[in-house]
Amino acid sequence: MRAMENTNISQQHVNPGALEVCRVLSAEGYQAYIVGGCVRDMLLGQTPKDWDITTDATPQKVMALFPKTLPTGLQHGTVTVVLGEGVENHFEVTTFRIEGAYADGRRPDEVFFVLNVEQDLARRDLTINAIAYDPIADRIADPYGGMRDLEAGVLRAVGSAQARFQEDGLRIMRVCRFAARFGYDVEQATFEGMCESINTLEKVSKERVADELCKTLMAPYAKVGLDLLKECGAIYITCPLLSSDGLFRAGQDRATGELETRLAFMYSNYPSSIAELELTNLKFSNREIKKVVFLLQLHERYHAFREKDTESAYKSFMAVVKNHSPEAWESTLEQFLQLTEAEGYQSRALFTKYQSVTVLARRELRLNGNDLMLIGVKPGPEIKRILEECYLEVLRHPENNTSSFLLDYATSI
Asked: Measured in Å, how far apart are the chain's first and last C-alpha atoms?
């Protein structure tokens, strides 16, 4: 669990561009705070990826103060200040605001600008994300005890937990993601608010749900996050097939590597068809789905190879890897090894045992359809059949992969 490292933060911890935005706003008499996740990360001794700024200046006044801005979210009071090339020099500046009703369970119907940062912080999801820092005055605004909760390793909703989750169902997924990232406990009233508001999650787009699920799986304490998804009931909405029969995968923290490897681990108790249906429903990309499904198909084949533990079984397995991998077969095999090692199999040692065995891919066959037509084979299914027979021959005997041998062999069959 990550504990708070910097009880005091200062200008030196702030991105120079973000500091310049605050300096310009302050020089004009406006309040300007670094806010949210970037303050949390600074307190944790991490370097923030994004820098958000909140101010009492209206969007129009912000745009008037900086030479280049983008009206990225005027309806919600947000302007992006551009200080140079690249997104690392883009800084979102949002006017202090409170929010109206959330009819869609995701975004406020309207916002109202206010004049103090404490009101603005009241609308945020968790106390650890409701801390603001004025780098010019060197002052921290922490009206909801976010620093205390960081120190204690607790995830607590700002104000009424039920109200926060009824406003935005995705916040339920976010709590699970932060639990997976930091290994923090969820305060009881916050957990109860998640459970009581679980129906709000049904209003959230599949794409946003999938994004939070991916971030949870890629976090250091993924098991904590997945267990929380299950305990609050969110998993039954996000991944109903995964949770339908109690085969929910344990030990997710052992899964490492790419996202697809971790997804395959999560579904490794299920047929690949289940994962394909679920990931399609969650709007994962075709590329991601193909990689996960293929890893699970290999997983199903692996047990036969492991039980037989013969050169022939190895060749059969590797032929599938080399001929059908959705990306470079070396990368796929490495992902598969990470998957099976996370399950406790000594798979890397098993494959090393056969590393001197040659397994050719179909594209390496020294014979093609044109060669067969030159010896009188008519175009059509017969060519495919003969090429398959030739491939099986060189799979068994790779030394026979020569044009002369294969032409003679094709003639004989």
From this structure: 66
